[in-house]
Design a protein that fits this description.
Blueprint: E1 2-6, H1 13-24, E2 28-30, H2 31-41, H3 44-55, H4 61-71, E3 81-84, H5 90-103, E4 109-114, H6 117-126, E5 127-130, E6 136-138, E7 157-158, H7 165-179, H8 181-188, E8 192-196, H9 200-211
Parallel strand pairs: 1-3, 1-4, 2-3, 4-8
Antiparallel strand pairs: 5-6, 5-7
This protein binds adenosine-5'-diphosphate and zinc ion (ZN).
Length: 212
């Protein structure tokens, strides 16, 4: 399936994408993961993205479109993809629309994962991420077996640079200002599926009910 996952930071886009990958085989494409990989590897892309990411601001549309134009044309995207964290601005959504037209492809849906703000705040401050494989933990509800060590790959599990209280509050404001308008954009496109998420499974169920 070809899906966009929309939702505030901490809404569960990554978790839903990972579950769908297991069901459907389509790759999860997370611009955040791609950028964090580039920062960790110290590439030119990483150097250009680093400061904005640390502050919780968005990386430039041009940089993101450069990454995504390439990524969407790779072989594993032929049958589908789960876009997690992209597009994030109206210009990115417009550019994606053009790109897909050019490639002769159509999205199945843009899924808005709707979660209350207090749930999100609590989640983000307690979230921890593996520096090796990107696995997500939560200090309260889902800690690794050994504190600070990933169950899956053994690398260290840390609080992300942009998960300080200040950066989190900035990321939520950036979401409201720049990304929330995409809900209206995809509604007009006739692609919007809005789900009040009581669990990640509830989101999966709604997606399967709509597109099978
Ligand atoms: P979140 O948990 O906020 O959904 P992500 O892992 O998706 O976080 O993104 C982390 C950071 O990477 C963002 O705060 C932003 O700086 C940058 N980023 C990721 N995707 C995009 C995008 N599509 N456009 C601009 N910046 C992006
Ligand atoms: Zn790991």
């Amino acid at each position: 399936m070809k899906l966009i996952l929309l939702g505030a930071p901490g809404a569960g886009k990554g978790t839903v994408a990972k579950l769908l990958t297991k069901i459907d085989g389509s790759p999860q494409i997370s611009t955040g993961d791609i950028l964090r990989g580039a920062v960790a590897a110290g590439t030119e892309l990483g150097k250009q993205a680093q400061a904005a990411m640390k502050a919780g601001d968005l990386v430039s549309d041009d940089l993101i479109m450069g990454i995504m134009e390439q990524r969407l044309q790779e072989d594993d995207c032929k049958a589908g993809y789960l876009l997690d964290g992209f597009p994030r601005t109206i210009p990115q959504a417009e550019a994606l629309k053009k790109l897909l037209n050019k490639m002769g492809e159509k999205l199945d849906a843009a899924v808005e994962i709707d979660v209350a703000r207090d749930v999100i705040l609590d989640r983000l401050t307690t979230r921890r991420t593996c520096t090796g494989c990107g696995e997500i933990y939560n200090v309260k509800s889902n800690p690794p077996a050994v504190e600070g060590v990933c169950d899956k790959c053994g690398a260290s599990v840390v609080q992300r640079d942009d998960e300080t209280e200040e950066a989190i509050s900035n990321r939520l404001n950036v979401y409201n200002d720049q990304t929330a308008p995409l809900v209206g954009f995809y509604k007009e496109e006739g692609l919007l599926l809005s789900v009040k998420a009581t669990s990640s499974q509830s989101v999966i169920d709604a997606i399967q009910a709509k597109i099978g």
